[in-house]
Amino acid sequence: MNFKYRSSGLENKYVIVSGCFKLKKSDNEFLRKRINEVLLHRIKTQPLGTFNAGCIFKNPYGEKNEITAAKLIEEAGLKGFSIGGACVSEKHANFIINKNNATCEDFANLIRYIIKVVKEKYNIELQPELTLVGFEL
User: Fold this and answer.
1) How wide is the angle at C-alpha 127 spanned by C-alphas 103 and 8, nearest 5°?
2) Distance (Å, rounded) from C-alpha 18 to C-alpha 4?
3) Is residue 117 pLDDT above 90, yes or no?
4) Is 84 helix (H, G, I), strand (E, B) or coil?
5) Whether 94 contacts 70, CB under 8 Å
6) Count of beta carbons in the 10 Å neighbourhood of residue 20
7) What kind and span of H or E run contains 110?
8) What is the average pLDDT value for the chain, to the nearest integer?
9) Which fold would CATH assign to domain 28-122?
10) 55 and 75 in contact (C-beta within 8 Å)?
11) Distance between the two ends of the chain, CA-based, in angstroms?
């Protein structure tokens, strides 16, 4: 397999339905502390408890995140913007939440709109992180 940032080399060919992992043994106290740190960070920064698909867009400049998709979307003034029942999260702008019985078309239209606005304002074309099935952007 050809693993790299945001890619396994399997996309567009296969759907992975299960897996086996070989992990290294580590100190339980260290792991508990690290898990708590990650959970606290997620609670502070992500719209937990909402219906969402996670981050929608890849960060435009790869692994180092010189600028994030969330920052571009937020600075474009799109936090809280809705199309139908799909809404850009107020907590993290790279999350779209299902606020009011959103349809797939609502989500697709909001994704298209975000791409358009960010492209017009910053000349950066955001790329979806998720795979859409059944329609094109």
Assistant:
1) 100
2) 20
3) yes
4) coil
5) yes
6) 4
7) helix 104-122
8) 90
9) 3.90.78
10) no
11) 28
**CA dist., res. 54 & res. 100, Å (int):** 17
Contacts of 85 (CB under 8 A, 6+ apart): 98, 99, 100, 101, 102, 103, 106
Phi, psi for residue 57 in degrees, rounded to 5: -115, 150
Mind listing the pLDDT tens digit for each residue in 32-90? Answer: 999 999 999 999 999 999 999 899 999 987 556 578 999 999 999 999 999 999 999 99
Sheet order of strands, 52-55 included: 52-55, 95-98, 86-88, 82-83
* CA nearest to 113, candidates 80, 81, 74: 81
Chain centroid to Cα 50, Å, comes to 14
Q: Is 98 helix (H, G, I), strand (E, B) or coil?
A: strand
Domain boundaries defined on the chain: 28-122
Cα-only R_g, the chain: 17
Residue 19 CA to its chain's centroid (Å) = 22
